[in-house]
């Protein structure tokens, strides 16, 4: 917590004894702590010393669980920053009564409410915003845009690129911050409304994207620019197309212009505290796992360049570079990618990378595939030189491609400017991204294989978790449980790491779509509440992403109905057969239809593409209402998720997710000789029998479930030899549904 903390409620670290809240109001501090009583309902806590800066207070209180003590400071001038160092020494805690233990759900709910990180932590951004505004004034910038992405348009980013989180306090993976000289706004989508509401302090206005009458961050920025104000942005963090559209909006609203600001202003505010850029070693992804050589991939890229009469393609997306050169890295958590750029021209391929990342094998791999190695920082100078050389050859009458240079429509404005701008550059849906989305046979085999192993790990975990909570009455928090799941995955062949932070969420936390439990500050799992686990792993032969929602006690009728409606949509999408050329946009309603019939819905996409030992979120395909999902048809070889859900804010959340492959299927007829496509699920983890209301299922849906359960049992039971707990759980969850 920084200096200048305002009145409000803050999470305080009490040296690991217990999580606590402190509310500052003038010279009064309300101290709230969650205590744990195993034998009694009441506990007596005597704080012998309560250190608040240089102030020492003595206090004694008899407290019920989650009660509040009010502590008066000795000095109203106490430095506010001292709150951050509050230490409660509970050295004389004792149980007073031997009253029967109450199994009160209220206490568990209170526990979850107290320690959900998304509902507790607010960063005071006043000081950071003040410093940023000072820099803005120096550069004659009235509005400054801080995107979530890095210079490679990555969804998941390295710590050094978390600029939007640093300046706003909002830690979700999607959103954009806009700071003016006297206000600030944060725009994000429905997945993060709850989290953003909880994390943003009073300096910020939340723009809930997708809701009626709520402006986009672009429109809000343009509105703020009226009266001739400049809007600034780091040109490496915004795409060329976005910059062009935003500049037009600014002009229409009476603003001055969109200014490319060299030297990121948030980085300057961050200063020496900013983490260093990672430089992890790169490894080779063997051809037998990739299914295609680097030379073949480069040949196909050059064929596309020839079709478009283009002199070259500049590649900036990290997963595209890793895929193109059959390399993997570890620069961004959970994503096996590395910081690099690349250029492909008719006669050369260059990889721009910190050469310290490459061992002799990697250098030899690149050299043998006719790839030149260049310094990472040289990309902008080389892009300018590439444009200048092409322009010179064109003027001199040399035979050169007549088209423009190509960059991805996610490529940065800075790259576009380096290549000559609008007159010299075409922004396209990346031809490498399109190729990467259609997996080779080797990659499809890897996906099938790794999901069997991953499914076995999840089955072991869920069986263990139920045994611990129900039979052994163990107390486990969300992170402790997630750690156990990772242990099971680590035992599996070719495990590399997780594919994203595990969403281990109990009760109301499950309603936060992208909830992230925090070690030492997360909820105790309640066996009488819904538990949602969304997790995945990286294996050398594939990437997994699976969500299951469970209940270890007695669910309510409303919970069972909601779960079953979600399951019905999940099954409907899996069973879909559709003509070639159909988009994910067109299929989205299949997963929502049963919820819609009951006036329910969810605020996230139904499916996203998945990489092969690459990013767990991969474009350009997906299932949902995004515009891009209406532009790209699904094709055989695509791998994507099927994950409908439903969420009751403050109560529970439900999501069911499988990975599916797109494949050609044989239908009874063949209308117009057009191929028809369908899905093949590869995720093999049972659904929660306790949450299924079979009276809501059709006979066809029951048949689908029985077929699925039989396959899960067949493919995974060999992993549980001698593990009676897991095998019993698996057989119970996969038993035949009448």
TrEMBL record:
Similarity comment: Belongs to the peptidase M24B family.
Cofactors required: Mn(2+)
Chain ranges of the Peptidase M24 C-terminal domain: 675-737
Stretches that traverse the bilayer: 42-62
Recorded catalytic activity of this chain's protein: Release of any N-terminal amino acid, including proline, that is linked to proline, even from a dipeptide or tripeptide
Molecular functions per Gene Ontology: metal ion binding; metalloaminopeptidase activity
Enzyme class: hydrolase
Key words of the record: Aminopeptidase, Hydrolase, Manganese, Membrane, Metal-binding, Metalloprotease, Protease, Transmembrane, Transmembrane helix
Key word Manganese present: yes
Function: Catalyzes the removal of a penultimate prolyl residue from the N-termini of peptides.
PROSITE patterns: PROLINE_PEPTIDASE (PS00491)
Peptidase M24 domain residues: 446-664
Protein name: Probable Xaa-Pro aminopeptidase P
EC number: 3.4.11.9
Domain Creatinase N-terminal: 128-263
Biological processes per GO annotation: proteolysis
Record GO cellular component, one term: cytoplasm
